[in-house]
Amino acid sequence: MTTTEALARFVQSVSMDELSTSTREELKKRLLDSIGIAIDALDAEPVAVVEETVQLANAGEQCTLWGQGETASPVGATMYNTALTRYLDFMDSFLAPGETPHPSDTIGAVIAAGEYVGASGETLLEGVGVAYEVQGELAWNAPVRDEGWDHVTHTIISATCGIAKLLELDVETTRNAIGIAGTAHNALRVTRTGGINEWKGIASANAARNAMYAALLARNGMEGPTNLFVGQKGWKQVISGDFDLDLDPGCRRVHDVMTKRYVAETYAQSAVEGIIELTEREDLAGSDVKTIRLETFAGAKLIIGGGEGDRHSVETKAQADHSLPYMLAVALLDRELGNDQYDPRRIIRDDVQKLLGKITVEENTSFTDRFDAGEMPARLMIELEDGTTHVVEKDAFEGHPTNPMDWDQIERKFHDTARAQFEGNRRDEIVAVVREMQSNDVDDLVSLLE
């Protein structure tokens, strides 16, 4: 049986003592042959394109690493800044029946591209719009989750499109960039199944980085497979199945994007809001609770309710923010769900570990139908030790597309999240620049993020 452990053990087992004289000879021949071929290719044009891109990728003076006072290449800055926007699991989400990606995973890449070329704020907004529109249309029309692919497989394509807009790539160069990105970087769903680990929060940064690299390769002259989607063994045949996109130049898909109220996986938002409201209304304590039963829709059951691996075994942040039992338990106990609730010491405390074991998650098929129709339904039934049962039902939450946060709410969230690192005047300046982004340049923004 082939496993990663088996492969690792095999690697450890290989030694020179195990190689015969004839095998050693053949290996040396392969080595010398390959080096000779490499030397012969030094003047080849595609290799020169790669070399130029590598030099660019290794240079460290083009783009800002947010909050560090340091710079990196466009590729490096994209990786780092996207990791920042994604890791806490507080980012936005696009809600589609078969896929829930995070369009904000493209923001770091688009800004890095804009900083690299000195783009205007107007162009930046255009690039963000492009990325969000492509991400939303792919999620809606070409979901890949059930086929075993991670949603960052979409991010590769959407980020590349956004980057191409900022780099002002022409049509053919953009086609090459998308072809390179979409054929070379498709991610497996195993990232979010079974025992969750930290790669879950970094995978989209890697996708965005690869999108930037693909765009730079194309910009420097590298050809890509421009039949990515419809070609033999292409994206439709291998990854998604057949689909059509209805891309809107007005980029309206951004209106279908939700903003998270709580630091929690997307599908947990309604349930968390409901349990906090109920706990505060009835003044509940963890010791009062006998059982908690959550009825939810298929996607929530699948991803964070136990359909893709046990969600009652929680020891790390990566596991906690993808466990409905943990999130509901800690939200009841603390009447909040923010970064503090993912402190390692909080996660392992007896009160939350005991309570999460009392929580069951079940799919309600009518809720699945309602989710597919645009709601995010949840029904919580909390039975107390004295026999009393309390019920709360939600069809959405503050930040859902049917109840979107307004500018003031977004601004308050920004100040709450940035307060620990940036002082008030600096935060106010960032708000002001973003508020009038179309009248500013990308440099005006990134200079405040150093």
Detail the topology: elements first, then pairings:
Blueprint: H1 4-13, H2 21-40, H3 45-58, E1 63-65, E2 70-72, H4 74-86, E3 93-94, H5 107-117, H6 121-141, H7 152-167, H8 171-184, H9 203-219, H10 235-240, E4 257-258, H11 269-282, E5 289-296, H12 298-304, H13 317-320, H14 324-334, H15 344-347, H16 350-356, E6 359-363, H17 365-372, E7 378-384, E8 389-394, H18 407-418, H19 424-435, H20 442-446
Parallel strand pairs: 5-6
Antiparallel strand pairs: 1-2, 3-4, 5-7, 7-8
Helix pairs in contact: 4-5, 4-9, 5-6, 5-7, 6-7, 7-8, 7-9, 8-9, 11-14, 14-16
N-to-C SSE series? HHHEEHEHHHHHHEHEHHHHHEHEEHHH
Shape by Cα distribution? globular
CATH topology of the largest domain: 2-methylcitrate dehydratase PrpD
Q: Beta-sheet strand percentage? A: 5-15%
Fourth-level CATH superfamily of the largest domain: 2-methylcitrate dehydratase PrpD
What class would the helix/strand composition place it in?
alpha+beta
Largest sheet: 4 strands, mixed
Helix content: 40-55%
CATH level 1 name of the largest domain: Mainly Alpha
Treating each run of at least 4 consecutive H or I residues as one helix, how many helices? Answer: 20
Low-confidence runs of at least 5 consecutive residues: none
Number of strands: 8
Count of the domains: 3
**Any idea what the radius of gyration is?**
24 Å
Which CATH architecture of the largest domain?
Orthogonal Bundle
Strand order of the largest sheet: 6-5-7-8
Q: On the 0-100 scale, what is the average pLDDT?
A: 91
N/C terminus separation: 49 Å
